[in-house]
Amino acid sequence: MPELSVTLGALRTSNFSEQRIGERSVKEELRQNLICKLQRGDNLFPGVVGYDDTVVPQIINAVLSRHNFILLGLRGQAKTRIIRMLTMLLDERVPYIAGCEIRDNPYRPICKRCRDLIEAKGDDTPIAWLARDERYVEKLATPDVTIADMIGDIDPIKAARSGQDLSNELTVHYGLLPRANRGVFAINELPDLAGKIQVGLFNIMQEGDVQIKGHPVRLPLDIMLVFTANPEDYTARGKIITPLKDRIGSEIRTHYPLTVEQGLAITRQESWTDRESPVRLETPAHIREVVEQLAFLAREDKKVDKRSGVSQRLPISVLENVLSNAERRALKAGETVAVPRVLDIYAALPSITGKLELEYEGELKGGDNVARELIRAAVGKVYSHYFEGVNVSQIVQWFELGGSLKLDETMNSPAMIAELSKIQGLMDKASALGVGASDPDAVRAAAAEFVLEGLYAHRRISRNEEVGFAAGERKREPPPEGGEGRRPPRRQFN
Predict the structure, then answer these.
(1) pLDDT tens string 434-455
(2) Domain boundaries, the chain
(3) The CATH number of 8-253 is which of 3.10.20.340, 3.40.50.300, 3.30.2000.10, 1.20.120.1760?
């Protein structure tokens, strides 16, 4: 990289000319860099899965249109991650007048301090440089945020030290928004921001001025504003005032993964499963799929509040907890391999219940019971995928002939294999999961246990706390007409 200029005079003769820096706004900078990335075929938002055909094109359109925009979506839909990645569309470095609180453009200063400095020093005005990461400012909107936090306030100490009158612009202590000048300013959960603060925002956006403690201050900021919000917040906690909504150029809706494959990719990417451990950690594909199906089914369940949503953090946290439970069991048993089982998913209930907002029906049933039902349904769905057309009647018959099997999630793999091998044909069916006799005991035990859990999910066998797995309850056949159980005819009286 060429040597960076340290004075305004040197800057004028460098590649950072007045035409390139002085006349180009942040939105134009984002637009031009985006065009270059599109022409090169770059990945604009690495790590963001499932938005290539939906959200990303709309964000591209907003940036190309030089719009301020808002991302609307439920929790856990990568809204904050996306807006933080906008800095990748900024120049690597840009110059500003050294010591300026609002990172003033050397060619077009807007604050009085920098205008006076250039008038006094001319080409000897000192220049400093901003990295792209320093040009991003983020604020979580809360009801207690004030105009002083966002825009600024009169600083009496600064006025006393400089001998200035309080009405002088030099006495202003700038807030977050001016300090984001020449960069991207993001506000998370916009509806939580008080109405009067939102008024101050759109005044800056449209007119470029604001009143601080009754003193008008002209601030034509060069800034890109992006917001995030939950659609339900418009009625639940607050709302976005109409004039501000009118000044937001694009409203972009985010969503949860549209397919299980997308969800699996996100969970694999974000979960902490590749961890250092004294034991080797292996997570079977069917366990990953059950955990992912759990989130998809929860989003459709009537007992779960759809307005709140089910965050993608749920399968991420559950998978981490499931693997930790398997790791704990392997460490206590002295095994060398830790493989999660369906029993470990039930042991991970604490990572499920806290992420589900329940409707009234769900509250009556209880969070643990709702979570258990979701796990059972998820196991059933994944089981159907792997065992469609597989004959398991021999296993079911073993239970119908009086067999029962109680398994404990703390049971080590050899002991579990010994118990599971009592059931005729069970270990052979693990081949549908790609598991054979040469695989470690922990892998075989997890596969065979999944077969039993799948049969239980499809009600081919039963399970309870006392007995464990047992024969399913047979449906009582209706009594034949005229046989036992038929209601006698009503007696007639004359």
Answers:
(1) 998 899 999 999 999 999 999 9
(2) 8-253, 260-471
(3) 3.40.50.300
pLDDT digits (tens, 9 = 90+) for 216-242: 667 788 899 999 998 875 545 578 888
Lowest mean pLDDT among 24-38, 276-290, 471-485: 471-485
Task: Assess whether pLDDT exceeds 70 at residue 359.
Answer: yes
Kind of pairing, strands 215-218 and 93-97?
unpaired
pLDDT of residue 428: 92
pTM attached to this predicted model: 0.86
